[in-house]
Design a protein that fits this description.
This protein has 134 residues and is α+β, with helices and mostly antiparallel strands. Helix content is 32%, strand content 23%. It has five helices and five strands, in the order αββαβαββαα. The protein has a five-stranded mixed beta sheet with strand order 2-1-3-4-5. The longest helix has 12 residues. The radius of gyration is 14 Å and the shape is globular. It binds tetrahydrodeoxyuridine (THU). The site of tetrahydrodeoxyuridine (THU) has 15 residues, from helix 2.
Length: 134
């Protein structure tokens, strides 16, 4: 999958961000194991803590449509450096990917940075830890 194509899809999804409080619009796009692209934007709420980030919106779209795994993902926002996914999103990304799954972080100004989920969240807590101690 062409990561540039994913960045374009993330940019288009960003246009739908619902951000009346932060005015910080974020878009995300991923290609899943079914070959489809799923996208997401951040969705804020007057009760701030209920905000859903763009990354989790895209991942939940993937799951709701029956796909199981992230093959590659892109995230985009406006800024001086590529947007950095929050800790909660990193944990959710790790749940549905491999540590070497590529992630492209981008700005609408044109900067990009390619990384992996394993680099974003090393030593992630996962279902292996859970089963061992349950
Ligand atoms: N946000 C995302 O959607 N993804 C990120 O990677 C960083 C933060 C959103 C949450 C909130 O709507 C706004 O950006 C400001 O924190």
């Amino acid at each position: 999958m062409d990561l540039e194509k994913l960045v374009s899809a993330a940019k288009a999804a960003r246009d739908n961000a619902y951000v009346p409080y932060s005015h910080f619009a974020v878009g995300a796009a991923l290609v899943a194991d079914d070959g489809q692209i799923y996208t997401g934007c951040n969705v804020e709420n007057a009760s701030f803590g209920l905000t859903n980030c763009a990354e989790r919106t895209a991942i939940f779209q993937m799951i709701a449509n029956g796909a199981k795994k992230i093959v590659a993902m892109a995230v985009i926002a406006e800024g001086d450096r590529p947007v950095s996914p929050c800790g909660a999103c990193r944990q959710v990304m790790a749940e549905f990917s491999e540590s070497d799954t590529p992630v492209m972080l981008a700005t609408i100004q044109g900067q990009t940075m390619e990384t992996t989920i394993g680099q974003l969240l090393p030593y992630a807590f996962d279902k292996g830890d859970f089963h061992e101690h349950a």
